[in-house]
Design brief:
Strand order of the largest sheet: 2-1-5
Oligomer: single chain
Number of strands: 5
Radius of gyration: 14 Å
Structural class: alpha+beta
Strand content: 25-35%
Mean pLDDT: 88
CATH topology: SH3 type barrels
CATH architecture: Roll
Largest sheet: 3 strands, antiparallel
CATH class: Mainly Beta
Low-confidence stretches: none
Number of domains: 1
C-alpha cells in the first residue's frame, strides 16, 4: 500500500510503501490525529519508521494496493 504524507512548510511529500491494509492505515492515522499522542508513526516494507508530528500534517493520501510486477514491460 502506498501512503503519501504532506507536511506543512516542506517542499516535498513523504512517500512510503507499507504492509498495512487501507483500513489499518486509516485507523492508525485517525488514532494519531484524535488521540493524546502527538506523533504519527508508520513503518515501511523495509522496517524503517516514519515519524511525523500530527500538528504538522497537511494531508495523508492512502493509495491502492500495489502488486508486484514481473517482466520488462509495464502492464
Amino acid at each position: 500500500m502506498e501512503i503519501k504524507i504532506g507536511v506543512q512548510h516542506a517542499a516535498r511529500e513523504l512517500s512510503l510503501e507499507s504492509d498495512l491494509s487501507a483500513e489499518e492505515a486509516e485507523k492508525t492515522i485517525s488514532a494519531a490525529l484524535t488521540g493524546k499522542n502527538s506523533l504519527l508513526v508508520l513503518s515501511d516494507e523495509k522496517g524503517r519508521k516514519i515519524i511525523v508530528p500530527t500538528d504538522r500534517l497537511a494531508y495523508v493520501e492512502i493509495g491502492e494496493p500495489t502488486s508486484r510486477r514481473v517482466g520488462f514491460g509495464a502492464l
